[in-house]
Task: structure prediction
Amino acid sequence: MSYKLVQLRNGTHAVYAAAYDEKMHPGLGPAAEAEEVYVRQLKLRERLRDHSGEFVIWDIGLGAAANATAALRAAREFNCPIRLVSFDDTTGPLEFALQNISALEYLQGYEAPLAELLQLQGRAANKNLEVETRKAPHPACGHPLPIRWGEGRGEG
Result:
């Protein structure tokens, strides 16, 4: 699959997937859109603050990991174990994004565990973040669980 960087009207960059003719996070850009839609709209911080025990987030479509990293950044300020499960059938957008991290700053602080995840094709960890991956679409489509982001909060 072919990916490229596109510059949005506000000057930020997003990933474009040619096979789907899709810009990922085309409005506000990846970081701002993920923060607004994934963190604020879902009241993630408030829910984490009021939660005890493991907090599980299902992320439909890992893509270039903007939503996943926004959720993990929001969770860092709370003392709550996080398990973020991302469902996707490819890691292509993430592979491309990591090659273009200077333009996609939202990944900064997560480069090492995400790169390790791709290199090992299955599991990566540091003291703050555990990542396990199995490529597959959402289980509602009759497929097994895929990309699993485990306990912890990323650095950055």
Strands lie at 3-7, 13-17, 22-23, 55-60, 82-87, 123-125, 129-132, 147-152.
